[in-house]
Amino acid sequence: MAEIKLNNVCLEAGGVRLLYDASASFRSGEFIALIGPNGAGKTTMLKCALALMAPSTGTVMLDGRTIADITPLQRARLVSYLPQSRPLAWPVRVRDVVALGRYAYGASITKLKGEDDAAVAEAMHDCDLDHLADRRTDTLSGGELARVHCARAFAAKAPLLIADEPVASLDPSHQFQIMALIRAYVDNGGGAVVVLHDIALAARFADRLIWMKDGEIHANGNPDETLTAARMKQIFAVNAIVAQDKNDWSLTLTGECA
Asked: 3-256 — its CATH code?
């Protein structure tokens, strides 16, 4: 189990307000999707939650401790992070990139054994990468590389997974595959916080949606409560028809608002 709590977090940089009075909790056993337009503050909030950015005011706690007081190695064992930008400094084998997910446990990338080897093998299989294990990363498509980074995050086996647009470069089949894997990860006791721009996909898989705009949280609740035409107009300034059939959601945009 693990829990991150943000309490009234604000962040300003260069006189620009990036995040204002953000309060939220991310915990094991829950799948949370962050929703909002570009520049809404989603990535900023995640970086504050991970101590990658220091709030101007407010507090961030991890399991009851100020997160900045916890060493990066300790944090890595509690929270696995998949950032929006995932550059690789040099071309390496797919399996070696996935093995980086075990670094916090002291694993040797080229000599995996025991639990480390099993975790990497499971993550590669789940992300449909077995046939690419020995390929160099510079020979992969954008979608294939996105799956490699997802597998690295899964291999960490941390209680919490924070992922910034993990399905952005994937085809529809692999989008559903990765989202189903995150859902299974949560159902098995983990917790996930994921930035998504496909709102219907978020509503299908997530337990809770956090809606953001202009650096503020405007709504925080389950899809039934928060995914409405009025909310789409408020957050994205578009007219939309929202429909639900069991666990499937559809959104039809009917035009921008004036």
From this structure: 3.40.50.300
